[in-house]
Amino acid sequence: MHSRIYCLLLVIIAFSCNPPEASESLHVQGTVADSAMVVSAHPLATEVGLKILHEGGNAVDAAIAVQFALAVVYPAAGNIGGGGFMIYRDKEGNTDALDFREAAPLAARRDMYLDKNGNVIENLSTLGHLAAGIPGTVDGMVEAHKKYGSKPWEQLVQPAIDLAAKGFTLTQHEAEGLNENYSNFLANNTTTYQDWISDQWKEGDSIKWPDLAKTLTLIRDNQREGFYGGETAQLLLAEMHRGNGIMTFEDLENYHASWRTPVTGNYKGYKVISMPPPSSGGIALMQLLYMTEDYPLKKWGISQPQVHSLYG
Question: What is the model's pTM?
Protein backbone atom coordinates (compact mmCIF):
# COMPACT_ATOMS: atom_id res chain seq x y z
CA MET A 1 0.00 0.00 0.00
CA HIS A 2 1.38 3.38 -0.93
CA SER A 3 0.84 6.05 1.67
CA ARG A 4 -1.27 8.75 0.07
CA ILE A 5 -3.10 10.74 2.70
CA TYR A 6 -5.69 13.20 1.44
CA CYS A 7 -8.01 15.45 3.36
CA LEU A 8 -11.70 15.23 2.72
CA LEU A 9 -14.25 17.77 3.82
CA LEU A 10 -17.60 16.50 2.68
CA VAL A 11 -20.53 18.58 3.88
CA ILE A 12 -23.98 17.67 2.62
CA ILE A 13 -26.55 20.36 3.37
CA ALA A 14 -30.08 19.03 3.00
CA PHE A 15 -32.98 21.42 2.89
CA SER A 16 -36.17 21.95 0.98
CA CYS A 17 -36.32 25.06 -1.13
CA ASN A 18 -37.06 26.45 -4.56
CA PRO A 19 -34.28 26.83 -7.18
CA PRO A 20 -31.89 29.75 -6.47
CA GLU A 21 -33.27 33.19 -7.16
CA ALA A 22 -31.78 34.81 -10.23
CA SER A 23 -31.59 38.32 -11.56
CA GLU A 24 -33.44 39.21 -14.74
CA SER A 25 -30.17 39.08 -16.66
CA LEU A 26 -29.26 35.54 -15.56
CA HIS A 27 -31.63 32.59 -15.67
CA VAL A 28 -30.67 29.64 -13.49
CA GLN A 29 -32.16 26.26 -14.33
CA GLY A 30 -31.43 23.34 -12.05
CA THR A 31 -31.83 19.65 -12.75
CA VAL A 32 -34.94 18.06 -11.29
CA ALA A 33 -35.30 14.31 -10.74
CA ASP A 34 -38.59 12.48 -10.26
CA SER A 35 -37.38 10.08 -7.55
CA ALA A 36 -33.63 10.19 -6.80
CA MET A 37 -30.37 11.84 -7.78
CA VAL A 38 -26.67 11.07 -7.40
CA VAL A 39 -24.19 13.94 -7.55
CA SER A 40 -20.44 13.55 -7.12
CA ALA A 41 -17.15 15.06 -8.25
CA HIS A 42 -16.49 12.37 -10.88
CA PRO A 43 -18.77 10.77 -13.51
CA LEU A 44 -17.55 7.22 -12.81
CA ALA A 45 -18.34 7.55 -9.12
CA THR A 46 -21.77 8.95 -9.98
CA GLU A 47 -22.41 5.92 -12.21
CA VAL A 48 -21.55 3.64 -9.29
CA GLY A 49 -24.11 5.38 -7.09
CA LEU A 50 -26.80 5.23 -9.77
CA LYS A 51 -26.22 1.51 -10.24
CA ILE A 52 -26.69 0.92 -6.51
CA LEU A 53 -29.99 2.80 -6.60
CA HIS A 54 -31.17 0.89 -9.67
CA GLU A 55 -30.38 -2.36 -7.84
CA GLY A 56 -32.67 -1.38 -4.98
CA GLY A 57 -30.22 0.31 -2.65
CA ASN A 58 -31.18 3.35 -0.61
CA ALA A 59 -29.51 6.78 -0.50
CA VAL A 60 -27.02 5.79 2.19
CA ASP A 61 -26.04 2.66 0.23
CA ALA A 62 -25.37 4.86 -2.81
CA ALA A 63 -23.42 7.40 -0.76
CA ILE A 64 -21.15 4.69 0.66
CA ALA A 65 -20.49 3.21 -2.78
CA VAL A 66 -19.77 6.66 -4.22
CA GLN A 67 -17.39 7.45 -1.36
CA PHE A 68 -15.27 4.36 -2.03
CA ALA A 69 -15.42 4.89 -5.80
CA LEU A 70 -14.14 8.46 -5.36
CA ALA A 71 -11.23 7.05 -3.35
CA VAL A 72 -10.14 5.47 -6.63
CA VAL A 73 -11.07 7.91 -9.38
CA TYR A 74 -10.87 11.27 -7.59
CA PRO A 75 -9.20 10.94 -4.15
CA ALA A 76 -9.03 14.70 -3.63
CA ALA A 77 -12.84 14.59 -3.17
CA GLY A 78 -13.32 11.24 -1.49
CA ASN A 79 -10.76 8.88 -0.02
CA ILE A 80 -9.94 6.32 2.67
CA GLY A 81 -7.17 8.47 4.12
CA GLY A 82 -9.34 11.39 5.21
CA GLY A 83 -12.73 11.97 6.76
CA GLY A 84 -15.90 14.01 6.50
CA PHE A 85 -19.47 14.72 7.56
CA MET A 86 -22.83 13.28 6.56
CA ILE A 87 -26.31 14.77 6.97
CA TYR A 88 -29.27 12.40 6.83
CA ARG A 89 -32.99 13.08 6.46
CA ASP A 90 -35.63 10.44 5.74
CA LYS A 91 -39.03 10.84 4.11
CA GLU A 92 -40.66 11.16 7.52
CA GLY A 93 -38.50 14.16 8.38
CA ASN A 94 -36.21 12.39 10.84
CA THR A 95 -32.67 13.75 10.75
CA ASP A 96 -29.22 12.61 11.79
CA ALA A 97 -25.60 13.76 11.45
CA LEU A 98 -22.46 11.64 11.29
CA ASP A 99 -19.07 13.11 12.16
CA PHE A 100 -16.25 11.03 10.69
CA ARG A 101 -13.63 13.76 10.46
CA GLU A 102 -10.00 12.93 11.07
CA ALA A 103 -8.67 13.08 14.63
CA ALA A 104 -5.29 14.23 15.92
CA PRO A 105 -2.91 11.48 17.04
CA LEU A 106 -2.52 11.11 20.81
CA ALA A 107 1.06 12.33 20.54
CA ALA A 108 0.02 15.60 18.85
CA ARG A 109 0.95 18.78 20.72
CA ARG A 110 -0.16 22.40 20.46
CA ASP A 111 3.20 23.71 19.29
CA MET A 112 4.26 20.80 17.11
CA TYR A 113 4.26 22.94 13.96
CA LEU A 114 6.30 25.80 15.48
CA ASP A 115 10.05 26.30 15.64
CA LYS A 116 11.94 27.15 18.84
CA ASN A 117 11.09 30.81 18.35
CA GLY A 118 7.37 30.14 18.08
CA ASN A 119 7.19 30.70 14.34
CA VAL A 120 5.20 28.45 12.00
CA ILE A 121 7.34 25.92 10.13
CA GLU A 122 6.19 26.24 6.53
CA ASN A 123 4.17 23.28 5.14
CA LEU A 124 4.70 21.11 8.23
CA SER A 125 0.98 21.13 9.06
CA THR A 126 -0.17 20.60 5.47
CA LEU A 127 2.34 18.23 3.83
CA GLY A 128 4.00 15.07 5.01
CA HIS A 129 3.49 12.55 7.77
CA LEU A 130 2.99 15.01 10.63
CA ALA A 131 0.15 16.63 8.69
CA ALA A 132 -1.91 13.41 8.67
CA GLY A 133 -4.78 12.86 11.09
CA ILE A 134 -6.29 9.53 12.03
CA PRO A 135 -8.44 8.65 8.99
CA GLY A 136 -12.17 8.55 9.65
CA THR A 137 -13.74 7.61 6.32
CA VAL A 138 -13.77 3.83 6.64
CA ASP A 139 -15.17 3.82 10.17
CA GLY A 140 -17.71 6.45 9.14
CA MET A 141 -18.96 4.38 6.20
CA VAL A 142 -19.16 1.29 8.40
CA GLU A 143 -21.24 3.19 10.97
CA ALA A 144 -23.51 4.68 8.31
CA HIS A 145 -24.09 1.22 6.86
CA LYS A 146 -24.85 -0.30 10.26
CA LYS A 147 -27.52 2.29 10.98
CA TYR A 148 -29.08 3.01 7.60
CA GLY A 149 -27.67 0.66 4.95
CA SER A 150 -29.85 -1.93 3.23
CA LYS A 151 -27.58 -3.63 0.68
CA PRO A 152 -24.75 -6.02 1.66
CA TRP A 153 -21.55 -4.18 2.58
CA GLU A 154 -19.54 -6.19 0.06
CA GLN A 155 -21.76 -5.03 -2.78
CA LEU A 156 -21.10 -1.38 -1.93
CA VAL A 157 -17.29 -1.67 -1.87
CA GLN A 158 -16.85 -3.99 -4.87
CA PRO A 159 -17.35 -1.32 -7.58
CA ALA A 160 -14.40 0.65 -6.17
CA ILE A 161 -12.26 -2.50 -6.17
CA ASP A 162 -13.14 -3.12 -9.81
CA LEU A 163 -12.19 0.44 -10.79
CA ALA A 164 -8.86 0.24 -8.96
CA ALA A 165 -7.94 -3.22 -10.27
CA LYS A 166 -9.10 -2.89 -13.88
CA GLY A 167 -8.18 0.77 -14.30
CA PHE A 168 -10.05 3.79 -15.58
CA THR A 169 -9.57 6.74 -17.92
CA LEU A 170 -8.35 10.02 -16.47
CA THR A 171 -10.36 13.18 -16.97
CA GLN A 172 -8.50 16.37 -17.82
CA HIS A 173 -9.04 17.67 -14.30
CA GLU A 174 -7.65 14.55 -12.64
CA ALA A 175 -4.66 14.41 -15.00
CA GLU A 176 -3.85 18.02 -14.16
CA GLY A 177 -4.18 17.26 -10.46
CA LEU A 178 -1.68 14.41 -10.64
CA ASN A 179 0.76 16.57 -12.60
CA GLU A 180 0.45 19.52 -10.23
CA ASN A 181 1.19 17.29 -7.23
CA TYR A 182 4.18 15.57 -8.81
CA SER A 183 6.75 17.29 -6.59
CA ASN A 184 4.65 16.67 -3.47
CA PHE A 185 4.40 12.96 -4.28
CA LEU A 186 8.18 12.72 -4.60
CA ALA A 187 8.89 14.76 -1.48
CA ASN A 188 6.40 13.06 0.85
CA ASN A 189 6.55 9.36 -0.05
CA THR A 190 9.25 7.24 1.54
CA THR A 191 9.01 4.52 -1.13
CA THR A 192 10.40 4.96 -4.64
CA TYR A 193 8.66 2.27 -6.67
CA GLN A 194 5.45 4.14 -7.53
CA ASP A 195 5.31 3.91 -11.31
CA TRP A 196 2.30 6.23 -11.33
CA ILE A 197 4.30 9.25 -10.11
CA SER A 198 4.73 11.47 -13.17
CA ASP A 199 4.09 14.99 -14.36
CA GLN A 200 3.16 13.88 -17.85
CA TRP A 201 -0.40 12.60 -17.34
CA LYS A 202 -3.00 13.77 -19.85
CA GLU A 203 -6.71 13.40 -20.44
CA GLY A 204 -7.55 9.96 -21.81
CA ASP A 205 -4.65 8.14 -20.16
CA SER A 206 -5.61 5.00 -18.25
CA ILE A 207 -4.37 4.24 -14.76
CA LYS A 208 -4.64 1.36 -12.26
CA TRP A 209 -4.22 1.25 -8.48
CA PRO A 210 -3.44 -2.42 -7.65
CA ASP A 211 -2.29 -1.67 -4.09
CA LEU A 212 -5.44 0.34 -3.43
CA ALA A 213 -7.52 -2.51 -4.87
CA LYS A 214 -5.91 -4.85 -2.34
CA THR A 215 -6.60 -2.46 0.53
CA LEU A 216 -10.22 -2.03 -0.56
CA THR A 217 -10.56 -5.81 -0.75
CA LEU A 218 -9.47 -6.07 2.88
CA ILE A 219 -12.06 -3.40 3.78
CA ARG A 220 -14.72 -5.28 1.80
CA ASP A 221 -13.98 -8.55 3.58
CA ASN A 222 -13.27 -7.24 7.09
CA GLN A 223 -15.02 -3.86 7.24
CA ARG A 224 -13.45 -1.72 9.98
CA GLU A 225 -10.77 -4.26 10.89
CA GLY A 226 -9.67 -4.32 7.26
CA PHE A 227 -8.35 -0.78 7.63
CA TYR A 228 -7.69 -0.03 11.32
CA GLY A 229 -6.15 -3.42 11.99
CA GLY A 230 -4.30 -6.24 10.28
CA GLU A 231 -2.10 -5.77 7.23
CA THR A 232 -3.39 -2.30 6.32
CA ALA A 233 -2.69 -0.88 9.77
CA GLN A 234 0.78 -2.45 9.80
CA LEU A 235 1.65 -0.92 6.42
CA LEU A 236 0.26 2.47 7.37
CA LEU A 237 2.20 2.57 10.64
CA ALA A 238 5.38 1.38 8.94
CA GLU A 239 5.08 4.31 6.53
CA MET A 240 4.51 6.65 9.45
CA HIS A 241 7.64 5.34 11.16
CA ARG A 242 9.77 5.78 8.03
CA GLY A 243 8.47 9.33 7.58
CA ASN A 244 8.83 10.39 11.24
CA GLY A 245 5.09 10.49 11.79
CA ILE A 246 3.47 10.12 15.21
CA MET A 247 0.44 7.95 14.42
CA THR A 248 0.24 4.72 16.47
CA PHE A 249 -1.79 1.52 16.57
CA GLU A 250 -3.58 2.90 19.64
CA ASP A 251 -4.68 5.91 17.56
CA LEU A 252 -6.16 3.65 14.90
CA GLU A 253 -7.79 1.33 17.41
CA ASN A 254 -9.40 4.18 19.37
CA TYR A 255 -10.84 6.09 16.40
CA HIS A 256 -14.65 6.03 16.21
CA ALA A 257 -17.06 8.19 14.22
CA SER A 258 -19.75 10.03 16.20
CA TRP A 259 -23.48 10.49 15.62
CA ARG A 260 -24.58 14.04 16.41
CA THR A 261 -27.71 16.19 16.36
CA PRO A 262 -27.96 18.38 13.25
CA VAL A 263 -28.12 22.16 13.36
CA THR A 264 -31.56 23.31 12.23
CA GLY A 265 -33.10 26.69 11.54
CA ASN A 266 -35.63 28.50 9.37
CA TYR A 267 -35.14 30.80 6.42
CA LYS A 268 -38.18 32.53 4.91
CA GLY A 269 -40.43 29.65 5.92
CA TYR A 270 -38.09 26.85 4.89
CA LYS A 271 -36.48 24.46 7.36
CA VAL A 272 -32.71 24.23 6.96
CA ILE A 273 -30.81 21.16 8.22
CA SER A 274 -27.02 21.22 8.40
CA MET A 275 -23.95 19.85 10.16
CA PRO A 276 -23.21 20.77 13.79
CA PRO A 277 -19.76 21.36 15.31
CA PRO A 278 -16.99 20.37 14.91
CA SER A 279 -18.03 21.41 11.41
CA SER A 280 -18.24 25.18 11.05
CA GLY A 281 -20.52 24.90 8.02
CA GLY A 282 -23.90 24.60 9.69
CA ILE A 283 -23.38 27.48 12.12
CA ALA A 284 -21.92 29.70 9.41
CA LEU A 285 -24.76 28.87 7.02
CA MET A 286 -27.45 29.76 9.54
CA GLN A 287 -25.66 33.01 10.43
CA LEU A 288 -25.49 33.94 6.76
CA LEU A 289 -29.17 33.19 6.17
CA TYR A 290 -30.33 35.03 9.28
CA MET A 291 -28.23 38.10 8.44
CA THR A 292 -29.58 38.33 4.88
CA GLU A 293 -33.18 37.28 5.44
CA ASP A 294 -34.56 40.80 5.63
CA TYR A 295 -32.73 42.08 2.57
CA PRO A 296 -34.23 42.07 -0.97
CA LEU A 297 -31.71 39.66 -2.49
CA LYS A 298 -33.94 38.91 -5.47
CA LYS A 299 -34.18 42.60 -6.30
CA TRP A 300 -30.43 43.10 -5.93
CA GLY A 301 -29.61 40.17 -8.21
CA ILE A 302 -26.62 37.85 -8.39
CA SER A 303 -23.10 39.26 -7.96
CA GLN A 304 -24.38 42.81 -7.57
CA PRO A 305 -22.54 44.39 -4.59
CA GLN A 306 -24.67 46.50 -2.27
CA VAL A 307 -23.54 48.67 0.64
CA HIS A 308 -25.97 48.77 3.52
CA SER A 309 -25.56 49.25 7.23
CA LEU A 310 -26.52 46.32 9.45
CA TYR A 311 -27.49 48.83 12.12
CA GLY A 312 -30.20 50.68 10.25
Answer: 0.85
